[in-house]
Amino acid sequence: MQVHVEEISPVKKRVNIEVPAEQVDAEIEKVYAGIQKKAKLQGFRPGKAPMQLIKRTYSDTMRDEVMRRIYEQTLFKALGEHKIEPVDSPTVESDILQQGAPFKFSALVEVLPEILLTGYTGLAVKKETYVPNQDSIEAELKRMQENMAQLVPMSDDAVVENGDVVTADYTFSVEGFPNETSTAEDAQIEVGANQLIPGFEEGLVGMKNGETKEIHVTLPEGYRLPEAVGKEGVFTVTLKEGKHKELPELDDEFARQFGEYETIEQLRAKMVEFREKHETDRIQGELKDRIVQALIDKNPLEVPDSLIKRQLDAMLENLKNRLQSQHMSIEMMGLDDNGFRERFRDAAADKVRGGMLLMALVTKENIAVADEDLAKRYELIAAGNPDMLDRVKEYYESNHNAKNSLFAEIKEDKAIDFLLSSAVITEVDASELKQAEA
User: Fold this and answer.
1) Residue 88, Cα to own-chain centre: how many angstroms?
2) Fewest Cβ atoms closer than 10 Å to its Cβ: which of 13, 84, 295, 308?
3) What is the pTM of this model?
4) What are the structural domains, with CATH classification, of the chain?
C-alpha cells in the first residue's frame, strides 16, 4: 500500500492511497465467494450457482463491498500511521475498481489546526460604563401599569383613541388583485400597537361604535405578495365595540399587588436594584465577548467547515426552540434555515475559534477545575434552591458526559477570567461602544 499526504490547508489534508492489484484481486475473490454461498438465482439451489453467473449478476454488489473493505483496511490505518485525527467523516473519491489493477482513492480529511497561542496577556478591551437610568424604571412601571389596566366599554358618543382595544368586522381587498381578499369577524385590535399593515390602525382612530368606514393603505415592503407591494389595499371596517384602558394609580395599593412591597417606593427601590444587577451582568457578559474577540484578533485561526456547520446547527436549533416557546418561527423573522446559516456563519466561525483558543489557553496555563469550582457551579445552576441543588449534584455525578461538558464550561469561564485579569480595560460610554462596533 502506498500513501501520500497532501497539505491542502491548516485544517485540510488529502490522503492519497494506492492499493496493489494483488490485494484488490484477493478481496474481489473473497467477496464473490461470500456472495456465491448466499445467492438465490432461479434454477439453482443456494450456493450452487456457477461463479461466472455470480460475477455477471452481482458485479455492482461486489464492487461496493470490496471498496468498503478496502477503505476500512487501509484508510484508518493510514490516518493512524500519519497521526491524522479527523474531526468529521472523510470525503472519499476513487477510481473505478477493476480486477487485475491497483485501486487508487483519496480522502479529504478535516483536522484541528495547530494552535501557537501568543499575545494573550495585556489585551486591550473596552467596557461599557454602567449608568443608572431612572427613566427606564418609570418606563417599566408604566408597562406594568398597562398590563394591569382594566378595559372599560366606551360610550356611544366616544371615539377610538390610541391605546384602545376594539372589536371589529372587516373585509380587505387589493386593487388589481381580485384573489387577494380576506374577511374577519370579531377581530380584537389594540390600536397603536402597530401589529397590522401600516395605516390601518391609524384609520381606526376617531371611529365610534357601530360606524362603518373604508381605510385605504399602501402595501409595504415585505408584504407576503411581493408583486402587490406599493399597491392600494382597502379595509371596509365596522366597529362593533371599543374599550378604553383604565390604568390603576401608581400608588402603594398598586405596589402591594406584587406581594412583598408595602409602598410604591419600596417597589421602585427593588426595580432599581434589579436593573443594576441585570445591566452589570449584561455589561460583564459583553466584556467577556470582547476579550475573546481580542484573543481571536491576536491569533488568527482557520477552523474546519464541519465544526462551523455543527455550531450553526446548534445555534439554529436553540433559536427555533426559543421561538417555539413564544409561538413564533424563524419564518416570522424573515428567515429560513439556509438564510440563517448564511447570515450567522461568521458568528459561528468565531464561536468555534474562541472555543479552540480558550481550550489552548487552558492547556498552556494548566487551568484546572477544583472541587470548589464545581460546588459553585452546582449552586449557580440550582439558583439557591436546596432541593434542586441535590438533584443537580446527583444528575452530574451520575452522567459522565454531562459532567465532562460542565468541566469544559468551567475551564472556559476560568480561561476568560484569566484573560481579564491581565487585560487593559477602558471604561467608555455606551454610545462610544455602539459607534465603534457599528
Assistant:
1) 21
2) 84
3) 0.72
4) 2-110 (3.30.70.1050), 150-246 (3.10.50.40), 260-437 (1.10.3120.10)
